[in-house]
Known about the structure:
The protein has one domain: GMP Synthetase, Chain A, domain 3 (2-Layer Sandwich). The radius of gyration is 13 Å and the shape is globular. By secondary structure, it is of the alpha+beta class. Helix content is 40%, strand content 27%.
Amino acid sequence: MLTNAEITGIADEVLRATLGPSGFERAQVMDDVDQDGEPALMVTARFKAGAHLDNGEVVVNALSALRDKLLARGEERFPYLRFNVEGEEPAVDADDFREHA
């Protein structure tokens, strides 16, 4: 299992490559559990103010690339990806994730 610092480094690298043109700035990682009680990762992609993610294919590609890179490094926990644009309220917080996922 990778450390959160290692996962953050990987997430920053992958998300900068896939979401950089959309205004991606940095990733934050926290340990969590999924709806089945399995260990998971909550990865928050932080974006510049005014950023817009209106291309679903780009988002899916970013999550897929992140998952692939983590698996290649031996990390089996699934990364749930959420987005936060500077100055906007997050669409979901960690408690909502556990209750509704």
